[in-house]
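Hello,

Our lab assistant flagged a job as stuck in the queue for most of the afternoon. It eventually completed. Since we weren't sure the result was trustworthy after the delay, we are filing this so someone can double-check. Below is the sequence as submitted and the structure that was eventually returned. Let us know if re-running is recommended.
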Amino acid sequence: MKILLSCCLLAASSAMLAGCHSSESAPAVITQTVRARVVESRYQQAPVVVRATGTLHARESAIVSAQVVGRIEQVLVREGANVREGQTLALLDDATLRADAHQAEAGLMAAQSQQAAAQTDADLASSTLERYKQLQVQKSVSPQELDEVARRAEASVERMEVLRAQSEAAKAQDSSARAMLGYTRLRAPFAGVVTARLVDPGTLASPGVPLLQLDSIGPLQLEVKVDESAIGAVRKGMKVSVSIDGATTSNVTGTVAEIVPAADPVSHSFTVKIDLASSDKLHAGMYGTATFATGTRQSILLPRSAVVLRGSLACAYVLDSNDIAQLRYLTLGAAQENDVEVLSGISAGEKLVDDPADRDLAGKHIELQP
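-- returned structure --
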């Protein structure tokens, strides 16, 4: 009897369940459709580059310092002044050196006067000796008299040579004194512009202490450090893309002018000097980056407009086979005009939502917007 009752209840339950399935169906999933522009990622040959940073310098630069100790009387230029080659930039007190020059000049004049007198005596002694030789032939003088005249002639020649040497020494001393006096006038070694004035009148100048800095006028050079692992791809005369921080100009093209052949033993890098075209927007001391193209490689590019930021992470909405958008995180490489290189996170030929802005499109069906 119990078995029969259980069977009846089970049959009733099955009938109820069957009735429920027949009267109700499972709710369908509704996907929102959004209209948007769609772009594709693609393969492209990308340049292999080496970047190096440095600063702009004049092609010629000089630190002007004194060669003698002296008090600075005048500084005749200021920063920004254009100067010509040989122009006087500063004056030192020259009282002591001027006195030394006058003394050397007087010594030279005295030595030359003594040399001239000795030359006259030597000429007279020589002519006297010749007359005595003729008289000896005529038996008019004794051999002793001839020997005495000959010795006097020899002594006059020796004295003349000594005074000639003294005169040469006095001349050298006079030239040295004049040169030292000239060092009190500091002159421009080449035509250029004064970029630093480091002293004022009254300062005691000493040899080797910088007083002024002078840069040549004309095109500038960018000096960068290139690691030894990449220096093999850099060659003299190659074109280089250069960007200058703080300049309003876009990237400029430079030319490798010089590669210093010895590497820095600490940083293991080489100094490379890059010639730049003249521009009134470029100034010495600016910071710049040089990009050396060393080859090409295959890369994946996508429009920069398809990239969105979620916090500090780069993302893109990628469409699946049903045109459903999924948010995918990317690792980006270098930007190239309107495109950006993708290092990971996407493959070539995938479709992406262009310019998604701040919209949340994850899981939504994307309808192509013309």
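-- support follow-up --
The delay was a queue issue, not a problem with the job. The result is valid. Confidence is low (pLDDT under 50) at residues 1-28. The chain has four domains: 33-46+298-368, 51-59+218-296, 70-92+184-217, 94-180.
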